[in-house]
Amino acid sequence: MRLVIRQDYDEVSDWVAHYIKERIIQFQPSKDRPFVLGLPSGSSPLGCYQRLAKFCKAGQLSFKHVITFSMDEYVGLPREHSQSYYSFLWEHFFKHLDIIPENINQLDGNAADLDEECRRYEAAIVKVGGIELFVGGIGPDGHIAFNEPGSSLTSRTRVKTLAYETIIANSRFFDGEVSKVPKLALTVGVATVMDAREVCIIIVGAHKSVALAKCVEEGVNHMCTVSAIQLHPKGLIVCDEDTTLELHVKTVKYFKSIEHVHQSMIGTENLSLQGQVLSTSGIAKRRYTQEELDKGSSIAGAVAASAAICDGDAEDKTDDVDQRPSKKRK
Ligand SMILES: N[C@@H]1[C@@H](O)[C@H](O)[C@@H](COP(=O)(O)O)O[C@@H]1O
């Protein structure tokens, strides 16, 4: 698992937006081979969504061949309600993109048969060949999507009763009134997320620092469902400095030093990013502009490393890119 620490929310949003952009571009999606992206709602991904929309508007990125699957939805809240995840994602993301509406998959919290709706969703994911990159956010107790503490780590899309802490936390979107917050939700399962070929979790704010510490420094545990990411071969967490408050100093130093080594191996210094930085992967052969290099060399490097590893031998298919000199880089 990789832990990328940035100064604040804006830097986290910048990093994740660039990362998603590079992953999509690298993938070279087409009608027959679309890029399948899992998406969260909530305040954590907002800055990232705004940046992705800007890329799209500027013609630097297209969602034409991107299929999306949203993580969760309240049960019983009308779709047009401003706080339904359907409305949220349309308002803050989809309507600003060139995405084809039929490629947007969202759970219907008003379906007549909720169990059937969950089965339909899982089947739809399978039908498109699985999710390439699942981006996620967490609640203060470490729940991913609506997989509340105690959720099975092998869970699939299903109906969940919300934990009281979640209802309180989300009441900020319902005029601060707990009674207005729906008590049930549809959510992808922990295993649905972990089945994705890559998982990227955005965690921002001191109020999530305990959850981050549990996820990174403690074991895999159903009371902190995001901790399942430890078992994922390509798990990535992007957080800000405030969120590291409960981590050991040595843990923070460790992940920062890894990123430093990573950058010096894959960044501009040694790899001539101005050339075909991604050529080792065989996936994309795009040249980076100087501006991109100045702004996002670490992101380009991360993506390049990611691609190189994916493209490697079976034994290379791990995320430990940072700790291992790549034979491809000789
Ligand atoms: N079910 C949602 C999640 O999908 C979301 O990721 C999380 C964090 O939200 P926020 O980013 O607003 O803190 O809250 C919830 O409870």
Descriptive notes:
The protein is of the alpha/beta class and 330 residues long. It has 2 domains: 2-247, Rossmann fold (3-Layer(aba) Sandwich), CATH 3.40.50; 248-319, no CATH class. 35% of the residues lie in helices and 14% in strands. It contains 10 helices and 10 strands. It has helices spanning 9-27, 46-57, 85-92, 114-127, 164-170, 190-194, 209-217, 249-266, 268-271, 290-310, and strands at 2-6, 35-39, 66-70, 72-74, 104-105, 133-137, 158-161, 184-187, 198-203, 235-240. Strands 1-10-9-6-2-3-5 form a 7-stranded parallel beta sheet. Strands 4-8-7 form a 3-stranded antiparallel beta sheet. β9, α7 (209-217) and β10 form a beta-alpha-beta unit. α1 packs across α2 and α1 (9-27) packs across α10. The longest helix has 21 residues, at 290-310. It is globular and about 55 Å long. The two termini are 24 Å apart. The structure holds 2-amino-2-deoxy-6-O-phosphono-alpha-D-glucopyranose. The site of 2-amino-2-deoxy-6-O-phosphono-alpha-D-glucopyranose has 14 residues, from α5. 2-amino-2-deoxy-6-O-phosphono-alpha-D-glucopyranose is lined by residues 40-44, 71-72, 137-139, 145-146, 166, 170. InterPro entries: Glc/Gal-6P_isomerase, Glucosamine6P_isomerase, Glucosamine6P_isomerase_CS, NagB/RpiA_transferase-like. Its EC number is 3.5.99.6.
Number of domains: 2
The CATH class designation of the largest domain is Alpha Beta
User: How many helical stretches?
Assistant: 10
How far apart are the termini? 24 Å
Name of the CATH architecture of the largest domain: 3-Layer(aba) Sandwich
If strands are numbered along the chain, what order do they take across the biggest sheet?
A: 1-10-9-6-2-3-5
